[in-house]
Write a structure and sequence with these properties.
The complex is a heterodimer of chains A (312) and B (222).
Chain A: H1 2-17, H2 24-32, E1 38-48, E2 52-57, E3 62-66, E4 83-91, E5 96-105, H3 127-151, H4 154-185, H5 194-215, H6 220-248, H7 274-311
Parallel strand pairs in A: 3-5
Antiparallel strand pairs in A: 1-2, 1-4, 2-3, 4-5
Chain B: H1 3-18, H2 20-39, H3 47-66, H4 68-76, H5 79-85, H6 88-117, H7 127-152, H8 158-186, H9 191-220
Helix pairs in contact in B: 1-6, 2-3, 2-6, 3-6, 3-7, 3-8, 4-7, 6-7, 6-9, 7-8, 7-9, 8-9
The chains are: A alpha+beta (312), B mainly alpha (222).
């Protein structure tokens, strides 16, 4: 288990520590649109003299960056071929850039600048994997419910309960991270955007699942059967809520109204930077293992509780 | 006469004797429409608002009427008898058809009420698509409330529980029908805008009817 903890800690560290650097084009667009004056840019040093340097960014676009009194870095100490992540300000008059700060030199990896997100783009490594794991958890819970109905083994009911509880937890986590993201991207914690509405209904569905179970006045066996049936029926509407409705209605989220989204979209293609996408999938796997661990612990707790109840 | 028709006839006969379902639903509709009219005097109701109001009315009206189908069997102590005489699937189909009939009657009377009371704001511009989404919505609500009513009839707080467990599950359907109805109130040829909603409704209905048909036996037989 400690391996998972270490891996997760490294992942969180990398998610926050990896510098974000865009292209010179990003810097120009964001400055001209008045979004932000200072933009992080990742570029390779071609040549440097006493006060300015010549760069080429990842897309081959060239740019001249001047040192200013305010900037804290000196180009003299770097040799050509070094990759610099630095924040620059666009100078409209001279069509060049002013150096603000050198963030990192020769980083192992960097995330691309997503226009409109900037530093907030890091949340893609938490929010999106969490909602994916939540879907997998509900799917697993439904599989266990079906297995319970087929095999009549009471242990599958405990596993279904544990998987649904884990899914509920990850839905709540995805809602919380998404809500924080929404606060800084769209201004408020909650907007009743289609995807927010559907995740709220998802919480209601599984809340009703646990409530239904506690309100049944039947033998454990019959309770388990009724809960399993409800779980399977509930899962029929989960794909509609998570995948279909948010995609065809207008939404603040990427992918709404049939627009292109970075991770999943109607055309089934991703336009996200490889590094960020790989990190995202590593996150999905790690959170999936966290979920399986939680599910396992909860299953064991339920087993002990049932054993206790039998003894009494 | 096949046995599901017998179950349907039994339910219809009880309904004609007591008129419980129909009168409860009509009362519910009248009260809801009166509250809406009272709270919006002289207001111009947008299509989005009026379609949401109509579907909220239909959903909770269905919950008052359709929740009875298995709860009443349990209360009158007749469910054991039904279990002896008819197979699970014929009980399910009979109840489903009865609930669908009740749901369609509810939808038509709600439509008449809305047409009568909201003459100015409630203009249906595309009748075929409007009827289609109303019918598909009725099928979905009937299927879900039939199977959930059978589930709930075993719980202790029967009456209050059905809307709580049914509404979240029906939410994709309610979102899609509300959107489709709004479009039929706004534009004369609604198919272009409402195609996605109609497809969602069709797939949701098929999935729900099949899943509840398969699962009904599990809850029904002891």
């Amino acid at each position: 288990m400690w391996c998972l903890g270490v891996a997760l800690a490294i992942q969180v560290f990398v998610a926050f520590e990896t510098p974000i650097g865009g292209s010179f084009d990003d810097a120009v667009t964001l400055a001209m649109n008045g979004v932000q004056d200072v933009t992080p840019v990742k570029a390779t040093l071609l040549s440097a003299d006493s006060s300015s340097a010549h760069f080429t960014d990842l897309y081959g676009q060239q740019g001249i960056v001047h040192e200013t009194n305010k900037s804290n870095g000196k180009y003299q100490s770097y040799k050509s071929g070094d990759i610099l992540v630095m924040s620059v300000a666009y100078n409209r008059n001279e069509k060049s850039f002013d150096l603000v700060e050198i963030i990192r030199v020769n980083p192992i990896m960097s995330f691309p600048m997503i226009q409109g997100l900037g530093e907030l783009g890091r949340n893609m490594l938490f929010h999106v994997p969490m909602s994916m794991v939540a879907f997998i958890a509900f799917f697993l819970g439904t599989i266990y419910s079906i297995l319970y109905l087929v095999k009549k083994d009471f242990d599958f009911d405990r596993r279904a309960r544990a998987a649904s509880a884990g899914g509920f937890l990850f839905t709540a986590l995805a809602t919380a991270t998404g809500s924080i993201w929404a606060r800084f991207s769209w201004g408020t914690f909650w907007n009743w955007d289609p995807r927010e509405t559907s995740i709220f209904i998802l919480l209601l569905i599984y809340g009703a699942y646990f409530m239904l179970r506690s309100l049944l006045e039947e033998s454990e066996d019959k309770k388990a059967r009724i809960a399993a049936v409800y779980n399977i029926i509930a899962f029929v509407s989960v794909p509609f809520l998570m995948f279909v409705v948010p995609r065809i209605t207008q939404s603040l989220h990427p992918g709404g109204g049939g627009t292109e989204a970075p991770i999943i979209n109607l055309s089934g293609q991703t336009h996200t930077d490889r590094t960020l996408l790989n990190m995202h999938w590593i996150s999905v796997v790690l959170f999936l293992f966290v979920f399986l661990w939680i599910k396992d612990i909860y299953t064991r707790i339920l087993r002990i509780q049932d054993k206790r109840a039998e003894e009494i | 006469m096949s046995s599901w028709q017998a179950v349907l006839r039994k339910d219809l006969r009880i309904e004609f004797r007591t008129r419980y379902g129909v009168s409860a639903v009509i009362m519910f509709l009248l009260i809801t429409v009166a509250v809406i009219l009272y709270s919006t005097p002289g207001e111009q109701l947008q299509p989005s608002i009026i379609s949401a109001l109509l579907w909220i009315t239909l959903f909770f009206g269905a919950m008052t009427g359709l929740a009875r189908s298995f709860v009443s069997e349990e209360e009158r102590g007749t469910s054991l008898m039904l279990r002896l005489y008819a197979s699970g699937e014929s009980v399910f189909i009979g109840k489903l058809v009865y609930n669908l009939g009740l749901m369609i009657a509810l939808a038509i009377s709600a439509l008449l009420f809305f047409q009568f009371f909201f003459t100015r704001d409630f203009h249906i511009r595309d009748w075929p698509i409007f009827s289609l989404q109303l019918f598909l919505g009725a099928v979905g609500i009937a299927a879900v409330s039939t199977i959930l009513s059978a589930l709930i009839s075993r719980a202790s707080q029967k009456g209050a529980l059905l809307p709580i467990v049914a509404l979240p599950i029906l939410m994709p359907l309610v979102i899609a029908t509300t959107d489709a109805m709004r479009i039929t109130l706004e534009v004369p040829s609604a198919w272009v805008g409402a195609r996605g909603d109609i497809l969602i409704l069709i797939s949701f209905d098929i999935a729900m009817v099949l899943v509840s048909y398969v699962l009904f036996d599990v809850i029904w037989k002891d």
